[in-house]
Amino acid sequence: MSDPFEDEEGNVQTTFPAEIDDDHINRPGPVPSAPVVSTITHRQRVYHPNPPVSRPGGLNLLQRMEMDQYAPIRNSENIYFPFASRSEWELADWLSRGALSHKEIDTYLRLERNTLHPLSFKNAKDLRSRIESLPDVPRWRYQEIKVDNYQTKSPIMLYWRDGLEVVEYLFSNPVFTQCMDISPYKEFEGQERVYGEFMSADDAWRIQDELPDGHSFLGVIGASDKTPLTIGTGNKEMHPLLLSLANIHAGVRMKATSHAFALAAYLPIPKFRNVSLAVQAVLSARIYHFAISIVVRNLIIANRDGKEMSDPLGNRRTMHTPLVCLTKRLNGVVEPFWAIWGDACPSRFLTPEALHQWHKFYFDHCVRWVTNIIGGEELDHRLAALQPRVGTRHWANGVSTLKQCTGREHRELEKLLPAVAAGALPDDVLCALRAITEFIFLAQGLFHYDETLHSLNEALREFHHYKSSILRAGGRLGKNGPLDHFQIPKLELAQHVSRSIRLMGAPYQWSSDITERCHITHVKMPYRLSNRRDYHVQCCRFLDRQEKQRLFRLFTTLKRSTSPLFFEMVNEARLLSIHFPETNWIPGVLSTEHHVGSVHSQKSIFNNPRSRVSATNARALLLTVRPHRPNLLLHDAMVCLRLDDLIPALGDFFSGRTYTARNGRRFSSPNCSLPFQAINIWEKFRIQQRSVQDVQAVAPTQTVQAAPPSEQLPFGRANTVLVSHESGDLMSADPESERA
Question: pLDDT per residue over 560-571, tens digit each?
Answer without folding.
Answer: 776 554 444 443
